[in-house]
Specification:
Blueprint lengths: L1 E5 L7 E5 L15 H19 L4 E2 L2 E2 L1 E4 L4 E4 L2 E3 L4 H22 L2 H6 L1 H17 L2 H9 L4 H26 L5 H7 L6 H21 L1 H7 L2 H8 L6 E4 L1 H4 L24 H4 L20 H12 L7 E4 L1 H6 L3 H6 L4 H22 L4 E7 L6 E2 L5 E11 L5 E8 L5 E3 L3 E4 L3 E11 L7 E11 L6 E10 L1
Antiparallel strand pairs: 1-2, 3-4, 5-6, 6-7, 8-9, 10-12, 11-12, 12-16, 13-15, 13-17, 14-16, 17-18
Helix pairs in contact: 1-4, 2-16, 4-6, 4-8, 6-8
């Protein structure tokens, strides 16, 4: 969008004013340091889990599998059904409160170390650096003409990017379809939805981590916009110490900065070229900062070389910077009321979820009365109602369940009083309940079905139902 204005009322010339800045490619310098080591440790940790879990076996099946066809979620020894969606809600709540807690304590830790956009951007940038070279080499390569060498390097980079992206998409689908089935179906036997999600996820990884990179964090991610609400003056963030660093400027080695009226910052610009979002941390806290600590890692060696103490750029809080807190004071301000409340709520939710899973009965029963036959009279004069019992064995061992019924005088089950259900299976059975005609009032009467696993009295369910007497 452009707007036209006249610089001078007496002049007829008009100049365009652009409201949008053209995107400039950021060439990030590789850094080494304490924070970079932690960042790569998280990259390895998250990717070993992501790529490794589909290949783990448990009880003769895939250890972690959200089986869409069977409508079951296998998580090692735990089998969850669609009726257990409550636990998904608990997981989302725990994730949200965990994000609030970590952000309130130490800023955008998730963004800088565990966010998929950050993780996969790091991986694709590492591939790019190995193939095209360091920052200076990449700049020179992009500015140069299209030669056979440039074409081959670019083609090799994109080929590796695409292979990695497609394998990542394949791994994602392997959480929903058993990985052995997927391997047997490759390359042309995959179903439509499997092929779609593999290409969709892999394609977005290739595009966002390979091309968009910092633009995802700056313009597409909503977390960057509302993170400021979760910050307070005691939140630990990446900060530049202007009191110590300003006025900045280049100087010769051995020159006394204080005597020359200069600060500790020599204006080398390394903190800018090392930043994955291309910001200048010396301008203060900015929403584009993902808290990765790359600027700290690149500044510390510079301070060492010129004989000045480290910490010109450091992980601290606004209050600590303004009030000159010691390390002990900074740590003491972490445990403030807001953090304590977040922590207590998070621990309470986790404890409730763990208790619910630990005491969960691995048996689910649905009782549905046959509506096609409300009530019928048997040959001996007794009244019968027909019920459909859906028995779900959520364990991974076959079970035999004993059936019983109570609630009316003389009530009994007609036929078999036991049913066999295979491991992690849903079995449906039709049962007939019989009572003497004088055992209850006319209309609906409350009865109870009892289903108990033979050999394990702890696995038992008591379900309510109604019995109709004419």
């Amino acid at each position: 969008m452009e707007s036209k204005r006249k610089d001078d009322p007496g002049e007829a010339a008009e100049s365009p004013v652009s409201f949008y800045e053209k995107h400039k490619k950021i060439y990030i310098r590789e850094v080494k340091g304490w924070w970079n080591t932690w960042r790569w440790a998280l990259v390895w940790f998250t990717q070993i889990i992501f790529f490794g879990l589909p290949w783990l076996s448990w009880n003769g099946r895939q250890a972690v599998l959200l089986h869409l066809v069977e409508r079951k979620f296998y998580f090692f020894g735990l089998v969850l059904w669609p009726q257990d969606v409550f636990y998904l809600a608990i997981l989302l709540i725990v994730s949200a409160y965990g994000l609030f807690l970590f952000t309130a304590v130490a800023g955008r830790l998730f963004c800088g170390y565990a966010c998929p956009q950050t993780v996969y951007t790091e991986i694709l940038m590492w591939i790019e650096n190995r193939i095209e070279g360091d920052r200076a080499a990449r700049i020179k390569l992009d500015k140069g003409p299209l030669t056979a060498r440039k074409f081959s390097l670019k083609a090799a980079k994109h080929a590796v990017w695409l292979l990695f992206s497609l394998w990542t998409g394949f791994t994602l689908v392997a959480y929903f379809t058993p990985v052995e089935e997927l391997l047997a179906e490759l390359p042309f036997g995959l179903s439509g939805w499997e092929m779609f999600w593999m290409i969709f996820y892999g394609g977005f990884l290739y595009m966002q981590a390979g091309f968009l990179r910092e633009q995802v964090c700056k313009y597409m991610c909503p977390y960057a916009r509302f993170q400021g609400v979760m910050f307070d003056p005691d939140t630990l963030i990446i900060t530049y110490d202007p009191e110590r660093g300003e006025p900045r400027g280049a100087r010769r080695k051995g020159v006394d900065a204080k005597a020359a009226g200069q600060g500790d910052c020599i204006d080398c610009g390394l903190c800018v070229v090392a930043c994955p979002t291309g910001i200048d941390i010396r301008k203060g806290n900015q929403y584009e900062c993902i808290g990765c600590g790359a600027c700290i890692d690149v500044c510390e060696p510079v301070m060492d070389k010129i004989g000045l103490p480290r910490g010109l750029i450091r992980y601290t809080s606004e209050n600590a910077l303004a009030r000159h807190y010691s390390s002990k004071d900074v740590t003491g301000h972490i445990l403030r009321p807001r953090i304590i409340v977040y922590t207590l709520i998070l621990l309470a939710i986790i404890a409730a979820a763990v208790w619910s899973l630990a005491t969960r009965i691995p048996l689910k029963v649905d009782v549905i009365r046959d509506r096609s036959t409300l009530a019928r009279e048997a040959d001996d004069g007794s009244i019968e109602n027909v019920y459909n019992l859906k028995i779900m064995n959520t364990t991974e061992a076959p079970k035999r369940y004993a059936l019983s019924v109570e609630g009316l005088a003389g009530i009994e089950l007609a036929g078999d009083h036991a049913v066999d259900v295979e491991s992690a299976e849903n079995h449906e059975i039709t049962v007939v309940v019989r009572v003497p005609p004088e055992s209850g009032k006319r209309g609906a009467n409350t009865i109870y079905f009892g289903i108990k696993a033979e050999g394990n009295e702890n696995i038992a369910v008591r379900e309510k139902a109604t019995f109709l007497l004419p």
